[in-house]
Write a structure and sequence with these properties.
- The protein is mostly helical and about 140 residues long.
- The protein contains five helices and six strands, in the order αααββββαββα.
- Strand 2 and strand 3 form a beta hairpin.
- Helix 1 packs across helix 2 and helix 2 runs antiparallel to helix 5.
Length: about 140
């Protein structure tokens, strides 16, 4: 495992030398966005197909953030930012909640996003790898 990691680091260093840091960052960011968009579309599709999703506004509000570096790792985030506080509704539907009377509510769509993320994991990495291979 370590040899593979070392090999990947060496490859990245060689590519940075050949292409420059800025271009490598742009290529990496484009690949991350493509992978994030694939996973976002899986989540959106699963949210639409889940029973009890109402109008579908939550599914349509699914989007991918711009790439950023978090703890030394370049990443994108999937979020729901449509100008409202939709993320709160999504959180309640994803994990369940207590209603005003104190009764626990298990929505029919509970866990849809987590399952879609799990299903989309391999798709994400395959897409990022494929996008990088096209550009480098």
């Amino acid at each position: 495992m370590r040899a593979k990691l070392k090999g990947e680091q060496d490859l990245m260093k060689q590519l940075e030398k050949r292409l420059g840091k800025r271009k490598m960052l742009r290529i990496t960011d484009d690949a991350l966005i493509a992978g994030g968009n694939k996973v976002a579309s899986i989540i959106e599709k699963d949210m639409f197909s889940a029973r009890g999703q109402g109008t579908g506004k939550s599914a349509r509000a699914t989007s991918v953030s711009k790439p950023e570096t978090i703890a030394g790792t370049r990443t994108v985030k999937i979020h729901w930012n449509d100008g409202s506080e939709r993320f709160r509704i999504i959180h309640l539907n994803e994990y369940g909640h207590f209603d005003k009377a104190g009764k626990w509510v298990n929505p029919t769509s509970k866990g849809v996003i987590e399952n879609a993320m799990r299903q989309g994991r391999e798709t994400y990495f395959a897409t990022v790898k494929s996008e990088l291979a096209k550009r480098v």
